[in-house]
Amino acid sequence: MEVVADETLLPVMEEQVAVFEHLYDRTNVELTSAQENQIIRKLLNKEVEVAVLTRQLTEQENQFFKARKFTPRVYKFATDAVAVIVNKQVSDSVITLDHLVKIMRGEKSTGSLNQLVFDNPNSSTVRLLKELAGVDSLPANGVYALKSNLDVLKYVYETPQSIGVVGVSWIVRPDNGIKKYVEGIKVLGVKGREGEPAGGGYYKPSQSNLADSLYALARPVYIINAEPRKSLGMGFAAYLTGESGQRVILKAGLLPDSIPPRELIIRK
């Protein structure tokens, strides 16, 4: 089975596939990553049947499947966070959502951090910030898109005046290849909009803050199974939403859709 995942979720999905193949040693999952727009295109063109995204399909996208008299099965299995990062040399430790929105709108904002760096112009992180800012395109100045989350980590590591936007799983448990860059950056606390739970203070993308809806840049994670028949995709979705898959989510720093139980044995 081939699974294509949002590139911002690649680290946690690599762990999921490794555990799944270990538990079910006769399975073979070929995991690839792509930007959100590319994944949607692959699904609609029947190039791939199982995808992991941070949004559900739109009504217009679902029409492609309805024309084939088929409805994809969609399961939420986690809540992800978009982390806002800066170089460790920067004195700032917090930022407001309004500040990010002003940059996205091309407006001047106070402070020295006015350069926003994304992984890719077609990524899910760009879409999220565009929706929050109410814009359809990126401004000509102040916002830059690279190629991947790894490129963002490297750029922020080398450019102290920049603000990076990455998926939180890239920085919670980094592998040896990117550990140097993660150690050279820090995650900012984000204050949401007034009147919302996340607007009551500055919150970092921790699991407790995600559970309490206190982090302004949280988003759901779905597995979309567009297999027209019962196959391995159903088993993989059941694994992700089951106890084993949810434990991997918990260890990866994301919020599981259902918190795995813990049994405590109390002895006298």
TrEMBL record:
InterPro entries: PBP_domain, Phosphate_ABC_transporter
Keywords: Signal
PBP domain span: 3-243
Keyword Membrane: no
Source domain of life: Bacteria
Protein's UniProt name: Phosphate ABC transporter substrate-binding protein
Organism: Parapedobacter defluvii
